[in-house]
Each structure stands twice: as structure tokens, then as C-alpha cells.
């Protein structure tokens, strides 16, 4: 399975913070925002990842992450010169995906929770068409909403419904089989000229090959695209790391735990960060792991 992080957009909701930097480079507590979606793909066992961003942001993100080899990853980069819909990621990334299945995640989404890595790996192994991830919200009229029947079968998808049939918001994480590029190429742009991911999902639903995996109690999903949600995400990560003695989206630790790198490589990454708390943590877990 190939991974795509769509980290484009102009970040206008976060002006003036994003007037001189990419939204995905803003801090969510102690890490750049882009670490969080990358961590999700890594937890799903995905190592071949394309990061799509704006012309000005791509060089900076590449300077931060390089080719990913220090994490046991293969990172590549592509430009989306202006926002033309989430589904355009599959046109930009068609060569990257090739004939493989793929996971697409939005660059400002944070996921965390007990058993989440196992849930991701189960979803990857059982993929048959399209798997979406739903999360209960109190304001479903603001989201794409997935409705399931009594047996848990996905029966409808509606974008920002005036009268929602469900409170299951479709999050910014999507798993697709090898047909997604062809399906994305076949959808028509919206009135705004965008390729809507909902149209891709609806095509899978029409084919009877779409399902919704619920993220319920014990899971957290946050979209970091506003001042309040960015602050809430930072406070959430701070609380988890300080009170549960657990690190959220620590890419080096995930790479070590997943077997992408060894303890020596993890130690070197930590030592390279000097006396920072983050660097000391990496050297400690590398020593304990070894």
C-alpha cells in the first residue's frame, strides 16, 4: 500500500500565522503538524509516502524530512499549485500509486487512541474497495456524513447535509484499492472547479465496495485548521504526553517500534537533536530498546 499526505491549501483560516509559513509546519505542541498524518501512515505499516503541498512549502517540508531514509521510509514530493479538491491528489500522485492500493490522509488531521494501530492494520488487510473512517460529531451539518444501517453497512454518504441522517463525520483518512486513480480521473469537477473526494467515495458506494469503520470511545480525531482546533490539538497532545507517559506522533519512536530502523539509528537521531527534551527521549528509548 502506498501513502499520500495532502498538505496543500493556502491556510487562510489561520492567517496571519500562515502568511509566511505552511500550515503543516506549524507546531502542534512539540512537533510540526505534518508529523501527525505521517505517523498514521507509518502505524498502518506504510513506508512509501508522497507528500503533496504548495510550491513554496514543498522545499521547506523536504528540508525538514528529506527522503525519509533516516526513518526507514521512502518519501517523495509533489506540488499542488492551487487547491483543486482532495481527489486531485490521485491525479497528481498517479505515478506514485501505480497499480497499488493507497491510503490518503489530510495534512492537518490528528488521530490517536487505544488500539488505533491495530485498527489501521486490520483495515488495510481487509480492504475491498474503499474504507472510510467515521467519527461522531455534534455538528454533522458541517461535514461529509456516512450513514450505516443496523448491520453496520454503509448505505449513504452526504456532504454537509441540511438534515443529517447520522452523526458519523467522514474523517480525512481514506483507504482505497488500485481502482481509485481511474475513478478519480472519471469524476467531474464541482461548480467550484474542484475534484471532490465525496464523489470518489460515492462511486465506490454505488459499486457496493465502500465501508465505514467507526472511531468511537477511546479515539480522538482533530482537524487542526482553525485557531481553536490548533490550540485544542496542542493541549490534547500535551495532556497525553505529560499524564499518560506516551508520545503522540513521535516518528522516530514509531520507526523503531515498527522495525523500520534499529536502536542505533534511533539513538543517532536523538543525539543529533542536542539537549532538547525530544532528543533525550529518543536516546533513552533507543537505549532501553537495545
From TrEMBL:
What is this protein's name?
A: Glucose-1-phosphate thymidylyltransferase
The entry's keywords: Magnesium, Metal-binding, Nucleotidyltransferase, Transferase
Matching Pfam families, A to Z? NTP_transferase
* Protein family according to the UniProt entry: Belongs to the glucose-1-phosphate thymidylyltransferase family.
Q: What does this protein do?
A: Catalyzes the formation of dTDP-glucose, from dTTP and glucose 1-phosphate, as well as its pyrophosphorolysis.
Catalysed reactions, as listed in the record: dTTP + alpha-D-glucose 1-phosphate + H(+) = dTDP-alpha-D-glucose + diphosphate
**Statement: the UniProt record of this protein carries the keyword Magnesium:** yes
Q: Where is the Nucleotidyl transferase domain?
A: 2-237
Kindly list the biological process annotations in GO that this record carries: hexose metabolic process; polysaccharide biosynthetic process
Q: What is the protein's species of origin?
A: Sphaerisporangium melleum
Entry's InterPro entries? G1P_thy_trans_s, NTP_transferase_dom, Nucleotide-diphossugar_trans
Q: Enumerate the cofactors the protein uses.
A: Mg(2+)
- Name the Enzyme Commission number(s) assigned to this protein: 2.7.7.24
Keyword Cell membrane assigned: no
Name a GO molecular-function annotation: metal ion binding
Record's NCBIfam families? Answer: rmlA
